[in-house]
Amino acid sequence: MGRWRPPQPKSSPYITAEGYKTLNEELRYLWKVKRPEVTQAVSEAAAQGDRSENAEYIYGKKQLREIDRRVRYLSKRLDKITVVDRVPDNQDQVFFGAWVTLVDEEDNEKRYRIVGPDEIDAHQDYISMDSPLAKMLLKRFIGDEVTMTRPDGSEVWYEILAIDYQRYETGL
Asked: Backbone phi, then psi, for 96, in 5-degree steps?
């Protein structure tokens, strides 16, 4: 079996101001703090002599490659994304950045925020605007009902209870 993988579909180029700030801070940390620390550790390990059996040197070089890969990715991604830092005019409709409260057929309430693919976080209930649920919710109104088919073939029904937008902080 070869290593070739089909290319991933392009993700949406949108991000909230908070998400942009987080990615920018990660880039700054990796470039200004983490990389110099690892570079120093690698040079100290290299000074110890035989590099072929020096685990600290080998691990440090691997860590440098991972940091450089992430820095390259973040640099390119931050140049290409569009920061959405304003609330839409019609706040009764679901758009990017909205907090959407849903209720399912068993009266379980769930609250999700629709964000860009670079910001998804299950612990904060952030879902990507490219996800099937978010695609079904976009441009819907309070009281609208959506039915989604799960990967196992079962269907789940949701009703939109509330839509609200946080005031965006433009701390770019």
From this structure: -55, 135
